């Protein structure tokens, strides 16, 4: 049996469970005093373009939101689970003009591209400037931030995802009971892995059949194109190859076509390398 639940303010942290990223956002107020507070209403936004952004939701009278509106800059610091007590300290309602970090073991370090400091103990950090601010009436203030720099602990850079997940040990926010008791989990020992694979009954992209010869490198690039796009990519590339009076689709022709239709070279590079 299922039961419909009344939708109330704070519904997202009421009965509904919504695992979240835990971040500590650092900002500066107009006088240049540092402010820090935990924020979890945060999502990646505009992921395919060269202008990667994050979208964050705030109580409009929070010091963080006010500072962002006034200065246009903020830093998203992701702490490890070992710093949850410090993170909770920054959640307390300290008065305006107080730097919450002074009551924690976090160390402020200069950021690379923006004025608010970063937190040394956080393994992954995004420095942002404001792209757009939306103030919903009597509700959330939404900030869309352009990511100016992504900064991580050096040892993480060449690690595979599994090792990186374990090394960073990011907590997962599991919401609160009446905005007083906050629950967190970690993945650690319970990490599972699932491979995407092909659909069971129909090969995804099975209608994506080449009519011409493709050289090895061009074929490799095609296989790195997401399956739902392959048919369209094959048709366009073969038409372009014929226009160029070539008989074989090569990686060069593939790249030339992509460039001519305004495809981002960095997206192309991901298709080429498969990374
Ligand atoms: C784990 C956690 C996540 C939170 N996420 C948010 C959030 O996304 N948006 C928000 O407005 N408040 C959030 N809060 C509450 C603010 O952190 C809290 O109101 C804090 O005092 C604000 O600090 P500030 O006024 O210095 O910005 C969160 C609190 C915790 C403990």
Considering the chains and any ligands shown, give keywords for the structure.
Helicase, Ruva Protein, domain 3, Pnp Oxidase, Chain A, alpha+beta, binds flavin mononucleotide, 25% helix, 14 strands, 2 domains, three-stranded antiparallel beta sheet, seven-stranded antiparallel beta sheet, 275 residues
Task: Give a quick summary of the entry.
With 275 residues, the protein is of the alpha+beta class. The chain is built from 7 helices and 14 strands.
Under the CATH scheme, the architecture of the largest domain is Roll
Number of continuous helical runs? 7
Summing up helix and strand content along with how strands pair, one would put the structural category as alpha+beta
Biggest β-sheet: strands ordered side by side in the sheet:
3-2-6-9-10-5-4
Report the C-alpha radius of gyration, rounded.
Answer: 23 Å
Secondary-structure element order, N to C: EEEEEHEHEEEEHEEEHHEHH
How much is the average pLDDT? 91
What's the story with the biggest beta sheet? 7 strands, antiparallel
Low-confidence stretches: none
In this entry the ligands are: flavin mononucleotide
Describe the model.
With 275 residues, the chain is an alpha+beta fold. The chain has 2 domains: 11-189, Roll (Pnp Oxidase, Chain A); 213-273, Helicase, Ruva Protein, domain 3, CATH 1.10.8. Helix content is 25%, strand content 28%. The protein has 7 helices and 14 strands. It has helices spanning 63-71, 84-91, 161-168, 216-223, 227-243, 251-260, 265-273, and strands at residues 20-21, 23-28, 34-39, 42-45, 53-59, 73-78, 108-109, 118-119, 124-135, 140-152, 171-177, 181-186, 213-214, 248-249. The strands form 4 sheets. It has a 7-stranded antiparallel β-sheet with strand order 3-2-6-9-10-5-4. A 3-stranded antiparallel β-sheet has the order 1-11-12, with no helix packed on it. The chain has a two-stranded antiparallel ribbon with strand order 7-8. Strand 2 (23-28) and strand 3 (34-39) form a beta hairpin. It is elongated, with a radius of gyration of 23 Å. The mean pLDDT is 91. The protein binds flavin mononucleotide. Flavin mononucleotide is lined by residues 22, 35, 37-41, 57-59, 62-64, 88, 91, 93, 173, 182.
């Amino acid at each position: 049996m299922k039961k419909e639940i009344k939708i109330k303010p704070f519904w997202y942290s009421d009965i509904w469970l919504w695992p979240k990223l835990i971040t500590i956002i650092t900002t500066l107020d107009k006088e240049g005093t540092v402010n820090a507070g935990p924020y979890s209403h945060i999502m990646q936004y505009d992921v395919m373009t060269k202008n990667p952004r994050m979208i964050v939701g705030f109580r409009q009278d929070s010091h963080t939101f006010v500072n962002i509106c006034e200065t246009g800059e903020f830093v998203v610091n992701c702490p490890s689970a070992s710093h949850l007590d410090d993170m909770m300290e920054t959640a307390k309602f300290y008065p305006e003009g107080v730097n919450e970090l002074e009551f924690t073991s976090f160390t402020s370090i200069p950021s690379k591209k923006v004025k608010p400091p970063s937190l040394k103990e956080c393994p992954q950090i995004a420095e942002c400037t404001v792209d757009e601010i939306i103030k919903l009436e009597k509700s959330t203030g939404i900030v869309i931030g352009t990511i100016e720099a992504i900064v991580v602990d050096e040892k993480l850079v060449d690690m595979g995802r599994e090792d990186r997940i374990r090394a960073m040990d990011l907590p997962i926010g599991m919401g609160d009971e009446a905005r007083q008791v906050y629950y967190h989990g970690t993945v650690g020992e319970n990490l599972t892995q699932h491979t995407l694979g092909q659909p069971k009954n129909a090969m995804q992209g099975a209608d994506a059949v080449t009519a011409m010869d493709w050289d090895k490198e061009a074929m490799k690039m095609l296989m790195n194109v997401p399956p739902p796009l392959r048919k369209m990519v094959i048709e366009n590339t073969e038409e372009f190859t014929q226009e160029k009076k070539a008989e074989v689709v090569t990686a060069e022709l593939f790249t030339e076509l992509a460039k001519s239709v305004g495809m981002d070279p960095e997206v192309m590079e991901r298709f080429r390398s498969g990374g």
